Amino acid sequence: MDTRLSEDDLAFQVEVRQFLAEAWDKELAATYGNIATMKEGAEEWQTRLYHKGWVAPHWPVEYGGTDWSVTQSFIYNSERAAVGAPEVLPFGVTMVASVIIAYGSDEQKQKFLPRILKSEDWWCQGYSEPGAGSDLASLKMRADLEGEEYVLNGSKIWTSYAQYANWIFCLVRTDSSGRKQEGITFLLIDMDSPGVTVRAINTIDGFHHLNEVFFDNVRVPVENRIGEEGKGWTYAKSLLVHERLNIAEVASSKCALTVVREEAREEINGGKSLLDDPIFAKRLTDIEIELMALEFTELRALAAISEGNPPGPESSLLKIQGTELQQAIQELRMDVAAYYSGTLQGELTPAGLGHGFADTAQKLYFRGRASSIYGGSNEVQKNITAKYVLGL
Fold it and tell me: Does 266 participate in catalysis according to the annotation?
């Protein structure tokens, strides 16, 4: 197999690098990296991508996609991760847009897709509930039809960035008489509707990115329903597949591993770099090998999608291995910081001791514990793999 880039691909790589050098500047990186200004930074980054025509490369061309080849998508994500630029937040562009494109009405496509492209709407995901996380089909939030409106009562939890959102896509229970996977409906809900309340969940990493969302007699017009009533589980499964492909974050993990390697190179003990330690070097190499294997698996999945095949159970494999490697890299970086990885920002020991990256390493480590849970816990993904891949 010839893995060399063609002349066209090399020209595209140059174009990507030039664009990123101009669009992802230090000022924008600082804005995005601060939780207080994160929304402003995310919208500005998406706006710059929009003007380039690259905000939603995976969409069909008629809705604003790029028709990139698998190789071009790979090049873009590799170059993006190499400079530390983030992916577009997935809730609008990747998640709900994929459902609207596949199952939405023409009116819904005309209304929502242009606004998602232009960052005019900020979306959040209403799936998990206090009693329905990995077993999502057990959700109980009610949506009762009254005339041309659904009346919603219940709550959602672990809702990322709901404090910023003006729209939420939700799975709701419209029928409880059959199997729990039946009677679930997919609704698009205006967050400014009377009866919607957002309550913050403060997490161990110190950031406010998770929330509870409460619905008290919230009225949603029937025109905001995706597809048929009771078919929401089918639509949700297609969305979750796209989410799990995104969660693998291969390009970002490659970048993170490069950062760890450079920090380890500068860590000197007894006159030798930490990279010269055989135990540490083996751990680093093992992760690098696993990451390379995951990258090829991701490329196979992307190739299948580019040929018109829907992403299948291999997304579960990507999610499992991708999140486990993210956690392994985060743990390795904590070990590079060593004793100072337990210090908080502003609490470094006197006389300038300690590592400047220790606080970041600690926050990423704590937040990363959740990556093997959200998007469908890895235990559940192993069951999916056993059933649909291994036939057990």
Answer: no
